[in-house]
């Protein structure tokens, strides 16, 4: 028997947190701003086609130094679909010949979020993006379990992404985003 995806439950859980924090987040089809919307439309999709990139949730937060940080969130609904890393421990979004690895980009939450972050690095003035992957599953008792991993994706790390950490919820996002402040050290 094939395991059913719990992605709708994961999205409901995470979006509920975002709402409870009072954050102005946008879902797939909603506009964040024209610069980000255009970048997501212009960049190759998760399948390699033209445009149509739609992160499951996205928001734009401002830090204490008044810098804007796009936050892109991708949800999946299976236990083993949080992130796929290469042998060097980097997000595995590129094949050996430098071509995009669309299978990983489509299948893993972090890989998809990092792909979206690269769209912004290539087609906007933003140089620093936070990519969040979240997935989950139902345990033996039917309880929803989840995993969250956060990556800093920037021009400084050539869009590969650096792992910030794993979290139990998204409470690090409400202003000021503490992880974003800590990230200032990663990018320098």
Quick summary:
With 188 residues, this protein is an alpha+beta fold. The chain has five helices and six strands. The model has no long low-confidence stretch (mean pLDDT 90).
In DSSP terms, counting alpha (H) and pi (I) runs of 4 or more, how many helices?
5
Distance between the termini: 49 Å
The largest beta-sheet arranges its strands as 1-2-3-4-5-6
How many extended strands?
Answer: 6
Domain unit count: 1
Shape: globular
The stretches of 5 or more residues where confidence is low (pLDDT under 50) are none
Q: Taking all residues together, what is the mean pLDDT?
A: 90
Radius of gyration: 16 Å
Q: How is the biggest beta sheet arranged?
A: 6 strands, mixed
Proportion of residues in helical segments: 25-40%
In N-to-C order, the SSE pattern is: HEHEEHHEEEH
Structural class: alpha+beta
Strand percentage lies at 15-25%
What does this structure look like?
It is a single chain. The protein is α+β, with helices and mostly antiparallel strands. The chain has one domain (7-187). 29% of the residues lie in helices and 23% in strands. The chain is built from 5 helices and 6 strands. It has helices spanning 7-20, 34-42, 102-107, 109-123, 178-187; strands at 26-27, 57-62, 68-75, 128-138, 144-154, 162-167. A 6-stranded mixed sheet has the order 1-2-3-4-5-6, with helices on both faces. The model has no long low-confidence stretch (mean pLDDT 90).
């Amino acid at each position: 028997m094939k395991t059913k995806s719990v992605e709708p439950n994961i999205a409901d859980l995470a979006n509920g947190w975002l709402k409870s924090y009072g954050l102005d987040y946008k879902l797939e089809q909603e506009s964040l701003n024209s610069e980000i919307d255009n970048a997501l439309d212009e960049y190759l999709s998760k399948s390699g086609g033209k445009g149509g990139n739609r992160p499951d949730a996205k928001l734009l937060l401002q830090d204490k130094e008044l810098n804007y940080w796009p936050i892109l969130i991708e949800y999946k609904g299976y236990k083993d679909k949080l992130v796929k890393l290469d042998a060097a421990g980097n997000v595995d979004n590129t094949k050996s010949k430098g071509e995009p690895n669309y299978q990983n980009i489509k299948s893993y939450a972090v890989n998809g979020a990092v792909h979206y972050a690269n769209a912004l690095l290539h087609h906007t003035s933003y140089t620093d993006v936070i990519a969040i992957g979240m997935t989950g599953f139902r345990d033996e008792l039917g309880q929803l379990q989840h995993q969250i991993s956060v990556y800093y994706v920037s021009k400084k790390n050539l869009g590969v992404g650096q792992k910030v950490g794993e979290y139990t919820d998204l409470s690090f996002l409400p202003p000021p985003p503490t992880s974003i402040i800590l990230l200032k050290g990663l990018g320098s």
